[in-house]
Amino acid sequence: xxxxxxxxxxxxxxxxxxxxxxxxxxxxxxxxxxxxxxxxxxxxxxxxxxxxxxxxxxxxxxxxxxxxxxxxxxxxxxxxxxxxxxxxxxxxxxxxxxxxxxxxx
Length: 105
Description:
By secondary structure, the chain is an alpha+beta fold. The protein has helices at 32-50, 87-94; strands at residues 2-11, 20-29, 53-64. Strand 1 (2-11) and strand 2 (20-29) form a beta hairpin.
């Protein structure tokens, strides 16, 4: 069983700005396809609990073959962008304004 990071996307029901959310969640799976299935199932559960809309995209990244330790400093997701634009323009495309982050304790 390998470790996978799965990136999923949501739209919040907030009446004023309806923000979007991106999440990266870890899974252990036998294959990429199984990791996608697990991510889709978890996304549906998460969205149902929060009243969010699940957007139709899942991106999965293989982290390790399963025998390597996953912990602090482990890369859990990476995506290359093949864009021929200056760095400031690239960052402007992905800076969506103030970010709201938080941890559940």
